[in-house]
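Reopening this ticket.

The earlier resolution said the output was attached, but the attachment link was broken on my side. Pasting everything inline this time so it's all in one place.
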Amino acid sequence: MKRRTFAIAAACSALPLTWRAAQSADAYPARPVLAIVPYAVGGADTYLRPLQPALEQAHGIRLVIESVNGAGGTVGASRVKRSTADGYTLLFCGSGLMSIAPRVQPAAPVLADFVPIINLVTVPYIIATRKGSAITTLPALIDFIRQKPGALTYGSPGISTSPHLGMEALARMLGSSVTHIPYSGIATAIQGLLGGHIEAVIGAPSTLMPQIEANAIHGIALVGKDRFPLAPDIPSLAEAGIDLDVSTHFAVYAPRGTPPDVVATLARAFQDAASDPSYTKAMAGVRTRVNLMPADSLARVLADETARFGTLMSAITT
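Inline output:
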């Protein structure tokens, strides 16, 4: 009888633990969610911050954003990779970190280390030159690169980033070369341009257009097939007969092993918050186009990007 009573008591005592575990899973998120942006402050984090109020008010997700810059994004990405896969640490980064960095940085995390959640924005790139430069038009840029191999110094947000790859691709298509000056972020690259330390820079419209509109630098070309609607006065490379299209897809990822129900909760929350017209308006204010893509579409885009630039990445690193 005593043994039977003990067994019943033990079974009953386990019920609160089971209930608490289920309650904990159902209550996600029970604490703030950290989103690591693996770049310098003032860059990609500007695409994420406008979503914070809607995520908290409508979905109970208090998103804390931390910029962890270094090694072209791999420092921050590695931190997310090592984190507990419980939905409380996320990565918000450009597609180049998944498709390019692993090819040129052996220590870089790979796509298989993460679970794609949703793509938020897609960013094209603009080439700009310093004030006082003789290069003020797209034809002048093309002639300079062709006629003076290695003479054009340009800044980018870092080694193995999409802007770096785009500029190197342009030089090779013109049968020439350029000199890359990697910076710790696009903001410092722009400072280098304004200070006359480099001849050109390649970066997102959100960071370059304010300087272009202030006539502090020259907007030369959009690295793409069509003009960007949010920067319509900048000609595309296609207008000069150059078939090169480089852009970056900024998306949210979780560490591999994150529970599917948590991933689904996050995907719904980000989709809902980013679908609000206020987010589109906020992004238009920083010359950025909202491009919501679910995880499966994003995976296909990343596979295509990796394939397209594989040969070029090998050429850059040899």
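Reporter confirms the inline version is readable. Residues 2-26 form the longest helix (25 residues). The chain has 13 helices and eleven strands.
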